[in-house]
Specification:
Distance between the termini of chain A: 23 Å
Radius of gyration of chain A: 23 Å
Structural class of chain A: alpha+beta
Largest sheet of chain A: 7 strands, antiparallel
Number of domains of chain A: 4
CATH topology of the largest domain in chain A: Uridine Diphospho-n-acetylenolpyruvylglucosamine Reductase, domain 3
Helix content of chain A: 25-40%
Oligomer: homodimer
Strand order of the largest sheet of chain A: 15-12-14-13-17-18-16
Number of helices of chain A: 15
């Protein structure tokens, strides 16, 4: 960026954003340069913290006029570099737009600003008897970030993903116009579905500034089963049988013993009922205890019929919190076990999970590298972490590329896709390109041009 | 179309489609010229019945080369003229591509061709213990048509709409290329959501030639409640209270006495428990009788607390079939009560249903015209039918325009949208235009250009 452009843009920004929410040079926090996975670092030239849709719209107009690239950031908890300003330019920090604006108990909606944290939405709704079902592991993520990646989480098997809970969006376009998509109504067959195009577009098509979420009534009762199996195949093969029972668990998580070991050493705690090769962790929720008990007893029996070594019923709240917080900390635990890591978040048809996990084990052996992981066994979305450990930089990069190439190719072969819930960002671009045919890829490119003709919104992400 | 173009195109078509599936002039059935509502009639110049994705792709290539407009037709049960070839050209009749190709019991998916009828999908899945939840009134519609309008239906309140059950689509583009969108996997955050853009696009963005549907396990038990109220306001006002109970009925339908009268005279039957001003008809389903009983007893009590005059429990299959088939025939009954009619399918926030119904009553009085209707009270999607009765053509057109203008304006004022589930087609174009702001409308126009640069796919529909 030349100095004149820089000066002009800064002059324009100062007219819109007060000095205490406008940052340049040394005022720019290092946090703005990375996300949670920490493999890329790049700072923006400017950063602003807008507080209203109008401020965002005016900033976008300035950016477009001066051809400045704009990257939107929520809490920075992404894993694929989507919120890193890799081309410099302006960082739009929406963490200040975090108001929970309206609970509508007739329409069962919650209107929020994009910077509201998942944990705040949880607290706000649940203390009032309502429930926002999506449950990604990272509770300090913003709702705007969750919508931008179409975050999934652990309850997707019963409740669906973020997309299923977005009723309405206010979106500022790349040119600084404001679109209102959807609303408080439930059904809609009125023209093209722009709302779903914005969801999951990782800040490349528009800036989300207000959201109307669907909420439901809070389930009164929750309980969980921890089910050990002699090996990962038996654990995973039990899942379709569970889902064919007519009972839909809230979550069906899968993990192996190695991940438990990392967690124990990370947390300095002992995992309950340790010592088995593989586990399913299931939860159930509903309004009535008797109903939930019926359900989990039937599923427990089914698991034992399909090779489970035991079934541990977790029905008190504390026990459940412990085990789910352990599950929630697996990512951190693996991160803590190594010097550096990168992740795959592939999704395959449920019927292909065994093949994929088997393939990961095989690659880990042939490449002599650790690839621990866990996954949402109910929906075929698996998280594996390639660990650098003691490899030098060159060997690590070679091995990582080789492993990634192999895993994404295998996912494609098995009828899967690159990302189940973390998005593409900058880290998975090359694998998305390989996974899509020319016609589909070109259509995506052209859609980017429709929304962002000057390619200023998160310009080098996804495509 | 000039004669040379006509000849060239016909020559090209004969190379792809055998003569017994290619129709011109007198061979073209009158059925191809209208849909279920019967307010518009226009025949195509050519019609073909392709049997494979490849045939569709080649036909689209020929059409694009010769700049011939192409309209896709399933069973012709639409209500907004979406499948009528209003600009002539080619009609692509997909009713022959009606195979149910694969039931995948591990991934809980059903792969079908677009011409498969809802009734066939129902029969196929339910006899095998599975269930395709969306339940639009018109069971002889094709699944392709349902996807093209994002059909909703009566079970949307519990199970969602057609969009929620489409996992994968094979789509032939306007240029004759083939795209595969989605698949058998459950979650996806891999680039822009083209699949949802195709769903609900009414044949204007591509031709759907294969579909992978999500299915679930068939609920073992179904029962219904017929709940009379002293007036429509009390009936509708009970609904948010029902939905806040934590119990989600499968369906919550609303109707008034006048519609029952039309149905009785149409069907020559007596409606059970006739004689009340307004009704809610609810259904419940699940795996266990005791659970369903608990649920409906709680809801029955709630209804009585909120003004219901009585609660009739319909728990035997025959009773339920009778009442739901009556509900399913309301549209036909109203049609039978008049000389000609046109419909609105607006959707408003649930909290605004009373205001909207009140407004309809008021307009009917001031314009001295019958506007009977009914609706999905659980999701704010209302169907009202403006009846011509004995008005002459000129007065009818004037009154219809006046009533439509007023109703769509009111829906917009109440935060609603033009169509909840029937789509826009040609009949609602002007109201969609009025309901959208310039930025959103322009984005839709540009998206049309991305998918169909020569504007040959259903060219004068939606926008």
């Amino acid at each position: 960026m030349d100095e004149t452009t820089k000066e002009n843009f800064l002059k324009a920004l100062t007219k819109v954003i007060p000095p205490d929410r406008l940052y340049t040079e040394d005022e720019i926090s290092d946090d703005y340069g990375h996300d949670e996975i920490n493999t890329i670092f790049h700072l923006p030239e400017f950063a602003v913290k807008p507080m209203t849709t109008k401020e965002v719209a005016t900033v976008m107009q300035c950016a477009n006029e001066n051809n400045i690239s704009v990257v939107v950031r929520g809490a920075g908890t992404g894993l694929v570099g989507g919120a890193i300003p890799t081309t410099g330019g302006l960082l739009l920090d929406l963490s200040g737009m975090n108001e929970i604006k309206q609970l509508d108990t007739d329409n069962l909606t919650l209107t929020v600003e994009p910077g509201a944290l998942l944990t705040d939405i949880k607290q706000y709704t649940e203390t009032r008897g309502f429930f926002y079902p999506p449950d990604p592991g990272e509770k300090t993520a913003t709702i705007g970030g969750n919508i931008s990646t179409n975050a999934g989480g652990m309850r997707a098997i019963k409740y669906g993903v973020t997309r299923d809970y977005v009723r309405g969006l206010t979106v500022v376009t790349a040119l600084g116009n404001v679109m209102h998509l959807g609303g408080k109504f439930v059904k809609n067959s009125s023209g093209f579905d722009l709302k779903d195009m914005i969801i999951g577009s990782e800040g490349t098509l528009g800036v989300i500034t207000e959201i109307t979420l669907k909420i439901i009534i809070k389930p009164e009762v929750t309980m969980s089963l921890l089910v050990p199996f002699p090996n990962f195949k038996d654990a995973i093969k039990a899942v379709p049988n569970i889902l064919r029972s007519g009972i839909t668990p809230t979550a069906v998580e899968f993990f192996e013993q190695n991940v438990i070991k990392y967690w124990e050493s990370f947390s300095q705690k002992i995992f309950p009922e340790d010592g088995h090769q593989a586990y399913l962790l299931l939860s159930f929720d509903g309004q009535k205890e008797a109903q939930i008990e019926d359900d989990y007893e039937k599923i427990a029996e089914l698991c034992l019929e399909h090779g489970a070594e035991d079934v541990y019923v977790l029905d008190d709240v504390k026990q459940q919190e412990e085990i789910w917080s352990a599950r929630g900390a697996f990512l951190e635990a693996i991160k803590d076990s190594t010097t550096e890591m990168d992740e795959v978040d592939i999704v395959v048809p449920r019927s292909e999970i065994v093949s994929f996990v088997q393939y990961v084990h095989q690659i880990a052996t042939t490449e002599n590298i650790r690839i621990p992981g866990f996954g949402h066994a109910g929906d075929g979305n698996l998280h594996f972490y390639v660990c650098r450990d003691d490899y030098d930089q060159k060997t690590w990069q070679e091995k990582l590329t080789k492993v990634f190439d192999a895993l994404y190719q295998e996912s494609k072969t098995l009828g899967g896709q690159v990302s189940g819930e973390h998005g593409i960002g900058i880290a998975k671009k090359v694998y998305l390109r390989k996974s899509l045919d020319e016609v589909t890829y070109t259509a995506m490119k052209k859609i980017k041009q429709v929304f962002d003709p000057n390619n200023i919104l998160n310009p080098d992400k996804i495509l």
